[in-house]
C-alpha cells in the first residue's frame, strides 16, 4: 500500500475516532498482516495447547485433544464473527465496554459499561499473567530435561516469572516501533516451528507409533474421576484457553490503519488459521504420544519437556522441540502484555481507574507508549504472582478467571445487540446479514457454557491442591468492582463519550496528556 493511500486511510480513521468521541493519540503503524499476526501471537497455538496439556491427557487423551480442538474452533468462530461485526462499527481501543455503552439502553448503559470494563481489566491482566507465568513454568520444564531430579521451589519459579516479565517490558516500552515486525517474526517462528515438530516427531517416534484409531479416537477418562461424557468437556479447558483472548486486539484499534475493515478481518481469519496450525501441531503428538501415565505423573505438573524427550529419544532432541514452544511463549508474552497495556490505558482515559489522569498519559518520547498504564498492568501481575508462593492451586485459578472474565466481557455486547434485534449493527461495515441472529446466539451460549466449564475442577475427588478456585476469584473481583463503583466510580465515571456529547462540545473528549 502506498504512502498517500495509507495517509488517506489514517486521516479517515482519525476522523472516525473523533466521531466516536476520542482524539488520536497513538501512531497508526499496523496493517492487516501486522494485526493478524499479533492476534495469532496472542493466541500462541502451540504454546496454548502444550503448556496445559496435562489437563487434556487426564481428561481423556488424544480424542479430546483432536476433536475438542475442532469443536471449540468452530464455536469460537461464531464469537469472532460477532465481535468483528461490532468492532467494525466502533473501532476504538476502549473495546467491549464502549460497545456495551453504545448498545445498551440509556437507563442501564453506565452500570453495564462499568461492569464490562472491569471484567475486561481483570481478564487482560490475568490472561497476560497466565502467559508470563506459564512461560516461567515452561522454563522449569525445560530445565527438567537435563535435571530430572530438580524440583523448582515456588520462589525460584517466581523469580523466573519476573525475568520473563522484564523481557516483555523491555520490548513493549523501548521497542514499540518494532513490535509490528516482531509479530511477523512470531508468525514465521510459529509456522516453521510447527513444521519442524511435525517432521521430527514423525521421523523419530522413539516412544513408539500409534495407529490412526489411537491417535484420533483413544479416550480414557479414568484419571479425571469424572464420568466419561463430562470428562470430555473438562478436556476442553486448554483449547478454550488458547482461544480466550481473540478480542484483545480490539484494544489496538487506534494503532491500526483503516481499523473498520482491517480489525474484523484479523479477528475472523485468526480462528481458521489458528485451527489449522493446531491440527498440524497436535497430530504428530497424538501419533507418537509416550505413555500417558508417565506424563501426568511429572512432579512439576508440566510434562512438555518429558513428552518431547521421550518422543525424540534424547535430551538434545527434546530440548530442541521444547525451545520452539518456549520461543512462542516469549513472543506471546510480549504481544499480550502490549495489548493489556492498551486496554488499561483506554479504561483510564474514560476515568474508570483510580488516578486516571496519570494512567491515561501517553509518552511521545517512547513512540507513543502509554508507559504509566503499562507499568500499572505489569505491577498488578507481579503482585498477583505472589499468590503462587502461598498456594499454587489458588494461583492456577487465575487462568480460569481470565477465560471467564474475557468471555463474559465479549459475550455482553453480543447479547445486548441480539436482545435489541441487532438494529444497532445493521449498518456495520462488516455485517453478518441474515446469519447474525444464529451466529450471535451460538456465541453467547458457548461463552455461558465455557464459564460453567472453567468453574469445574479438572480432577475429582477434589483435594486442596486440585480445587478450582476460579469461581471464587471471579466473584471476588466482581464484588471489588461493585464496591469501587459505590466508593469512587459513580462520582467520576460518566461512561465513554458519545457523538451527541462530542458535537455539543465541538471537540473530542479528553484523552490522556502527552509528553512534548
UniProtKB/TrEMBL annotation:
Location(s), subcellular: Membrane
Compositionally biased spans, kind Polar residues: 504-516
Region of interest (Disordered), residue spans: 497-516
Gene Ontology CC annotations of this record: membrane
Domain of life: Eukaryota
Membrane topology: Multi-pass membrane protein
Transmembrane segments: 32-54, 66-84, 118-146, 158-179, 186-207, 227-250, 262-286, 319-345, 371-390, 397-418, 438-460, 467-487
Primary location: membrane
MF term (GO), any: transmembrane transporter activity
This protein's UniProt keywords: Membrane, Transmembrane, Transmembrane helix, Transport
UniProt-recorded name of the protein: Amino acid transporter
Lineage of source species: Eukaryota, Fungi, Dikarya, Basidiomycota, Agaricomycotina
